[in-house]
Amino acid sequence: MTAEAISEGRTGGDFWDGVRLSMPVVVASAPFAILFGALAVDNGFSVLEAFLMSALIFGGASQMVGIELFGQHVAPWLVVLSIFAVNFRHVLYSAGLGRRIAHWPVLQQALGYFIMTDPQYAVAEARAQSGQPVGFAWYLGLGLPVYVFWVIESGLGAVFGRLIPDTHALGIDFLLPIYFLGLVLGFRKRPLWLPVVLASAIASIIAYGTVGSPWHVSIGAIAGVLLAMILPPHHSGVGKRP
Amino acid sequence: MSTTFWIILAGAVTTYFTRVGGHLVISRFDTIHPRVEAGLNAVPAAVLTTLVAPELLHAGPAEWAALIVTVLVSLRGGLMAMFLAGAAMLILARQFVG
User: Which residues contact A230 (CB under 8 A, 6 or more apart)?
Assistant: First the structure.
């Protein structure tokens, strides 16, 4: 009884630990959710469709690309392919996250992958690296607020989108790069961090200027990952990790 | 059902596939080669960098100031402090240099 109460209390504590970490993500993504809703309606989506897209896809950048192409009357299969291309980086996250959550029941894993986003993966990976377990309660606490706010704010944006004041002065277009830079810097103690960051940065900038968006994400990511694989193992610190 | 609905549904299915796909492929192997593990460890920095780097191409003074403040705060502070300091610098600088 006592042990049960303690373990339950711990699970609740883990959940709220996750919720606390989710707050910067909720703040940083709010303008994009509202913007997405507003743009979706602008590009011919109904409010319900904007809401559904956020609820079912839950991937900000891919949703923006999707409605943009839809608004330009691109063929439907090409819209879907572009959404897939923007989200392709998740394949890499998924391979990494699997090592951390393989001990969960299958249904929890299935849900865990559904709410996996850039920050969700990065924060979970940072926790695993610090030697703490990535439990379902903690992970859900981190992801659920982001999901709930994303979906609700998308709907609000679709309904009230035209009321947003000067988005540029509020810095809304540049909040996510700042947040992502913060995440990148959080991994700076990892072996090979600087070479990987440089390789990915250079490759993604070149790809951005040549092949174009969104392919620069996958190309840049693969460049950094390949570099880490090619360099001799004693540099990468594999096997020395705690 | 409208075309929009089918686009959303197909987009959702392919997106979910990217979210489980990497795990489903990797979990087929009993042991992970050290080089593959080194590659997986590089994933967060590699992918997240690509979401920032191209922004540098059209970053103006306000954006650079925000990024520099973010890096400086990262030397001492946590993620929330970094983000708030960078965002504050950006909003402040944009009042002056648009």
Answer: B35
Predicted-assembly ipTM surpassing the 0.90 threshold: no
Residues A59 and A214 sit within 8 Å (Cβ to Cβ) = no
Residue among B39, B83, B95 minimizing CB distance to A24 = B83
CB A183 within 8 A of CB A196: no
The residues of chain B scoring below 70 in pLDDT are 98
Q: Which residues contact A76 (CB under 8 A, 6 or more apart)?
A: B3, B6, B7, B10
B26 touches chain A (CB under 8 A): yes
Chain A closest-CA separation from residue B63 CA (Å): 8
* Cross-chain CB nearest to A91 (options B4, B22, B94): B22
Q: Which residue in chain A has the smallest CA separation from B21?
A: A91
Q: What stretches in chain A show pLDDT beneath 70?
A: 1-10, 162-167, 235-242
pTM: 0.74
**Domain coordinates in residue numbering, chain B:** 45-98
User: What's the CA gap between A29 and A157, in Å, rounded?
Assistant: 13
Residues in chain A: 242
